[in-house]
Amino acid sequence: MPKADFFTSLGLFVVKDFFDLELCDKIRIESRDAVNNAASVLGKDGKYEVIEEIRKIKYSQVSEETINKVNSCLIAVKPKLEEHFKLELTDCETPQFLRYTKGDFYLPHSDSCNTDNAPQSVKNRQVSAVIFLSSESEELGEEYYGGGALTFYGLIKDPLWQKYGFSLNGEAGLLIAFRCEIWHEVEPIIFGERYTIVSWFF
């Protein structure tokens, strides 16, 4: 499975150790112990709804203090994202804290939508950001999970490669950012729990 540096060569933005392991542990434990609710997707009518055949994940209601800390870290990296993607960005959406348990997944999708009934906030999205709080591994342990690969499609423009998926080896502390129109999925979790933070810059 490709390491994070491989995705840099394909135009994605990668920062290893964006969060240190101590912070990852702290937020992961808070997410685990917080109230967890089923995450929704944008339906055909432009409204958010829970459709577990498409997205089976929980989001954690962490403290405002944690939300604000993560938001500050994301805003601090905005100038580098602007330089990397040659974009002018204004802000980012409130971070979401996601918890995947055994069997959870998210089918292939993009994070932007330009249909008439889509919320303006979704239309405005330009860059997606994912921060890993746990690591993909074959080992068993509280900080590890198996399966659950973040897989990207269409990274190579050659038609022969358009449907080929490149799966990222998730590492605690890693930030990866990509244009919102890129198709991607989270493959089913085999064991353990996968914790990530996601946000979208506009």
Explained architecture:
The chain contains four helices and 17 strands. It has helices at 4-8, 21-33, 64-85, 120-123; strands spanning 13-15, 36-38, 41-42, 48-49, 55-56, 58-60, 96-100, 105-109, 127-132, 135-136, 144-147, 150-153, 165-168, 175-179, 183-186, 189-192, 194-201. A hairpin with a 5-residue loop joins strand 3 (41-42) and strand 4 (48-49). It has 202 residues and is α+β, with helices and mostly antiparallel strands. It has one domain: q2cbj1_9rhob like domain (Jelly Rolls), CATH 2.60.120. The strands form four sheets. Strands 1-14-9-17-7-6-2 form a seven-stranded antiparallel sheet.
Into which percent range does the helicity of residues fall? 10-25%
Strand order of the largest sheet: 1-14-9-17-7-6-2
Question: CATH homologous superfamily?
Answer: q2cbj1_9rhob like domain
Using DSSP, what is the number of strands? 17
> How many domains comprise the coordinates?
1
Instruction: Please name the CATH topology.
Output: Jelly Rolls
What gap, in angstroms, lies between the N and C termini?
Answer: 30 Å
Radius of gyration: 16 Å
Organism: Floridaenema aerugineum BLCC-F46
InterPro entries: Oxoglu/Fe-dep_dioxygenase_dom, Pro_4_hyd_alph, Pro_4_hyd_alph_FE2OG_OXY
Protein name: 2OG-Fe(II) oxygenase
Keywords: Dioxygenase, Iron, Metal-binding, Oxidoreductase, Vitamin C
Search tags:
202 residues, alpha+beta, Jelly Rolls, seven-stranded antiparallel beta sheet, 4 helices, 22% helix, 33% strand, metal-binding
